[in-house]
Amino acid sequence: MKKFVFTNEKYQELKEKEDERLKLNMKNVDKEIDMAAAALHALDEKFNSERSVFESACKHGVAAGELASYQGYFEFLQDRRKDATREMEALLDRKRTLTEALLRVNNELRVLEEMRQEQYQAYCKEVAAEEAKELDTHMAFTIIERAV
């Protein structure tokens, strides 16, 4: 009796490996997003705390040179925040791309599994037909032997 062989076995294995790779990439991107969000939050806190210090200093009077230093530092912090925001947007775009790819691969795997089930059912019917044929042949020989 022949063994069941799924015709798309190698393709399914390839898609399963791709699914695992995409899930690992998604996990890594999620970690990077968490780190980028923490960095963005830290920059916001730093900016707010420095602004509070600046506002407090302004109440007591600030020299022109010190004011220029604060302005330069605030511009530096805002530039870093813009960079961090761009990085976060890039990571979120990457996550969207991975999500789409993961959905596509999962749909392909689902279709492949349905194909496997259909082929297995056809295989089972074929095996049952072969067994029935062998049983009929055996019964026919048994009847002939008894008749002789």
Automatic annotation (TrEMBL):
Gene Ontology BP term (one): bacterial-type flagellum organization
Coiled coil: 74-118
Keywords: Bacterial flagellum biogenesis, Bacterial flagellum protein export, Cell membrane, Chemotaxis, Coiled coil, Membrane, Protein transport, Transport
Compartment(s) where it occurs, according to its Swiss-Prot or TrEMBL record: Cell membrane
Annotated GO CC locations: bacterial-type flagellum; plasma membrane
Family annotation (InterPro entries): Flag_assembly_chemotaxis_eff, Flagell_FliJ
Topology relative to the membrane: Peripheral membrane protein
The protein's name: Flagellar FliJ protein
Species annotation: bioreactor metagenome
